[in-house]
Every structure is written in C-alpha cells, then in structure tokens.
Design brief:
Elements: H1 7-15, H2 18-42, E1 48-51, H3 56-68, E2 73-76, E3 81-84, H4 89-98, H5 122-142, E4 147-155, E5 170-177, H6 185-198, E6 207-211, H7 225-255, E7 260-269, E8 274-296, E9 305-323, E10 328-339, H8 340-346, H9 352-367, E11 376-382, H10 391-432, H11 470-490, H12 492-505
Parallel strand pairs: 5-6, 10-11
Antiparallel strand pairs: 1-3, 2-3, 4-5, 7-10, 8-9
C-alpha cells in the first residue's frame, strides 16, 4: 500500500516531528468535514414554505399527494408547515389546487350529502343540510378577493305547528383577511346579502360579519351610533385621501415624483336636516272655490230671476321641501412640504421660500379650497430625508429585499462548494510541502571533527551537491526502506524504542 504513496510525500512525513504530524492529521479531518458540509448543504437546495398553519389531517393529505408525485418536502412546526424546493413550488401548488387542497380549514359542503343517508332520522338530515349550507357559504366567501378564510354559523329555527311564534333565523360570518387588508362597507354589504338570500327566512339585518380581530364589520349603514361612526370615519378618510392624491399629482407633475408631500384634514358635516318652506304671496289671490245660486220668481209677470255668486279666495303659497346633504365639507386644513433639493434643481439660484406661493395656488385650485369657508393651507420648503423618497419606494422595498435574499441563496451553494475545494487543496499542499531543515546545527566534518570551536558554522561554505535525478532518489529511498524493514525484523526491540521516542516527542 505504501508503494502507491508518492516518495516525496513519504519523505515529508518522515521529516515531521510529532506536533506537525498531529496538526496535519487535524487539518485532513477538517478538510474532510468542509468537503462533507459543501456536499451536504451546498449541493442541497434550500427549502421554502409552501403552506403554513395547516390542520394536521389536511397536512397529511397534502404530503401524501406530494410524495406520490415525487416532490421532495419537509414538515416543520409540528407538522403544520410544509416546505419544498423552490423549483417545485409552482408544480406543488398546481397539484394541490387540482385536488382542492388546502381547504383553509373550511367545513365540507354539499359532499356531506353524497354519503349514505338511508336510515338517518329527520333531525340528522336537517343537521347535515345546515352543515352543508354553512360549508358552501364559507367556501364561496373564501374565494373573494382579499379573504383568506371564512367560517359561517347559521341559527335556523325549528318549524313546528305547535309553536305559535318562531324565532327569526340568524347567521354569523367570521372572516380572516390577507395581509391586514380592510374591507369596505360595500364588500361587507355584499357578504351580508349573499348569506341572507341563500338562507330561507333570513333578513340581512340578522347577519353579523366579524373579522379575525373580533371587530364588527356589519351594521355600518343602520342608524346605530356604531354604524354612523364607522361610516363617518370611512367617508372622512376617503375624502382626505382623494384630495391629498389630487394635490400630490399636480405637484408631482411640476417637481417630479417624491418632490412634495401633502396631508389633508377635512371636517365634514354629517347633520341631516330636512326643511319644509311655505311662502305666501299677499299680492296674488288664488280662487279656491266658487258657488253660484240662481233664484226664479214664479209669480212674476216678466219671469225675472236673480243669480248669487259666492267665491272664496286664498293667498298664493309655495311649499318647498329641502333635504340637507350629508358629508358636506365644512373646512379643509392642508399641509404641504416641498423638497429644497428639488426646488433648487427646478429653479436654480432662487430662494425656495419665494417659490412657495406659486405652488400654494396650485394646491388651492387642485382641491377646490374656499377662503369663505375658512380653509387654511401651509406650504413649507425644507430638505427631505432619504426615507421620504416616495410611497412607492416603501412599498417596493420588501420585494427587493426578498429578491436579494433569493439571489444570495442561489449563489451560496456554489460558493460553499468552491470554498471547500480550495480548503482541501491548501491542506493537501501543506502535507506535500517538506518540512524545512533544522537551523543552527553543527555539520559533521570529514575526520570526525565537529565544525565548532575555531571554525564557526556561519563561516563554513556550504558544499555544492551534485544534481540527483528522480530515478536515483527513488532507488536510494527504496534501498533505505528495505534496510529499515530488515533491521526492524531482526531487532524488533529497537523498532519499538524508536516508536516510543516518536510518541514521547509528540
């Protein structure tokens, strides 16, 4: 086996002391560990989350389907999270969607009625029908935009001829939204009317819609204090956002994107006043009714008659019914910030404060400010920080961060493998490099005299060695090896003492 090892490596190992041999052995072990880590972690792609927050039974169905289709996966978080390779993400989602997975924890729908119903009582059938209706409604609502999961509970009264008064049907809907999304009143009303029209004898005012944070979403259009407050806040927020967007749009055209920031505070009038106005005109008279009576004398020779006219007049009147508008703007307060750097680039050499009146008039005309109403605006020019570059940049930042992470994960595998290979090469060269000769030794001269005393070692010229060919060196090495083996066989006690000396030096 030693014949397969290069002679130079054997010679280098022989010249090492115990410490160098131990360090070399440790280096080889570390090199093997680095190579193993490069193969283990560098060659295996990192797994990404496919779905999380799963029911254990549903997670089992999904993993069975992935295993049948040869998709590698791992379970995390106690089996509620499934992770797959990035290259298999799209294929896994399509396969699971074809099988209707995941269901989001929703109940089953009409498939509850597909089983054997023979032998079930009437009460059990009503229970199955109610559960099937709840599951179908939850499945339909869960497919709406922005809805992650929906749960529907129905409270249906039992009809009986012995009961004179029946309780009205009621329903509750719990919705989990994606990414902190907020539902508008129109969307909540749509869900309310969907449930009310799908359940017999259920009115829309008996449907309660809540979100996962236990906030009531339905009832914003009724006359309750909660409904009015929610509607008023939503209307005020929409008016302020609309006016601020109009102002920033026109300023962005002049200064560029991110050159100005606008905030609008609107005070709206939510008082609804209905007035009836009656106006009378004293100069004009209007005939209300007219009575005529005619009398004819019977004993008169000439047949005379008389006519009496009785008229009733009223003054002219105008009746006006005026319904006051709800949500009218009472007052606007606007704050505008302009970037000094942008103003210096648009109008170089001019004072930024002198340019503010021009942009103030633009904002006034853009949002329809009225001085008679008491509207107020403040325009200030100051340097912007880097984080105020614009709202779009803040929205796109997480996407760029995720993209950088994906690129880093993609190139980390070949980098780890390259580092492992370089470490192995460096350690291999360290082993092959012969140890330097010991300095400061006293060379032995011919005749058995040491080169010390009157002849210092530094002054002795080094003799020039004749060139030795590689085959000659190999022959000498083999000869020495054979002599050492023969001597060890004849005198084993000497070989044992040499080994003990090596161990003592190490």
């Amino acid at each position: 086996m030693t014949s397969a090892i290069p002679p130079a490596m054997l010679d280098g190992v022989r010249r090492m002391n115990g410490t160098n041999r131990f360090l070399t052995l440790v280096g080889l072990v570390l090199a093997l560990g680095v190579i193993w880590a490069a193969v283990k972690f560098g060659g295996t792609p990192q797994l990404v989350t496919l779905y999380s927050g799963l029911d254990l039974r549903e997670a089992g169905e999904m993993t069975d389907l992935l295993q049948k289709n040869g998709i590698r996966y791992e379970l995390e978080l106690g089996g509620s999270e499934i992770r797959v390779e990035p290259a298999s993400m799209a294929r896994a989602r399509v396969l699971l969607a074809q099988s209707g997975l995941p269901t989001g924890g929703a109940r089953k729908g009409d498939e509850l009625l597909d089983g054997q119903t023979w032998g079930k009582t009437e009460q059990e059938m009503r229970l199955l029908e109610r559960r099937a209706l709840e599951g179908e409604l939850a499945r339909t609502i869960g497919q709406f935009h922005g809805v992650e999961r929906a749960v529907v509970h129905l409270g249906l009264p039992e009809s009986s001829p012995l009961r004179k008064l029946e309780r009205p049907a009621k329903a509750s809907v719990v919705i989990t939204l994606r990414g902190g999304r907020q539902m508008t009143s129109e969307e909540v009303n749509g869900i309310t009317y969907l449930v009310a029209n799908a359940v017999p004898q259920l009115s829309s005012d008996q449907v309660a819609v809540l979100d996962s944070d236990m906030r009531l979403l339905s009832g914003v259009n009724d006359g309750s204090a909660h409904g009015l407050t929610s509607r008023q806040l939503e209307m005020q927020r929409s008016v302020e956002e609309y006016l601020a967007q109009n102002a920033e749009k026109i300023l962005g055209t002049a200064l560029g994107q991110g050159g100005a920031r606008v905030q609008v505070a609107a005070r709206l009038n939510f008082e609804q006043v209905d007035k009836t106005v009656e106006t009378y005109n004293p100069d004009g008279a209007v005939l209300q009714n007219e009575q005529r009576s005619e009398t004819v004398a019977a004993d008169s020779l000439d047949g005379g008659s008389s006519t009496i006219v009785n008229n009733t007049y009223l003054n002219s009147r105008v009746v006006e019914k005026v319904a006051g508008s709800v949500g009218g703007i009472e007052r606007l307060t606007v704050a505008v910030l302009l970037d000094n750097a942008v103003l210096a680039r648009v109008a170089p050499g001019q004072d930024p404060a002198a340019l503010t009146p021009r942009y103030e008039q633009l904002v006034r005309d853009a949002i329809g400010m009225d001085s008679a109403r008491g509207d107020r605006i403040t325009v200030t020019a100051m340097p912007f920080e880097q984080v105020l570059a614009g709202p779009d940049s803040l929205t796109d930042e997480p996407k760029g961060t995720e993209q950088v992470i994906m690129v880093a994960e993609r190139f980390s595998r070949p980098v780890i493998g390259l580092v492992g290979i370089l470490a192995a090469l460096i350690l291999a060269l360290r082993v092959l490099k012969p140890a330097p000769a010991a300095r400061g030794g006293t060379p032995t001269l011919a005749g058995g005299q040491a080169g010390g005393g009157a002849f210092p070692a530094a002054s002795m010229p080094e003799p020039e060695l004749p060139p030795v060919s590689v085959p000659a060196l190999s022959a000498v090495t083999n000869k020495l090896k054979n002599e050492v083996q023969a001597e060890s066989t004849q005198r084993p006690e000497m070989a044992a003492s040499v080994v003990k000396a090596w161990l003592t030096e190490g």
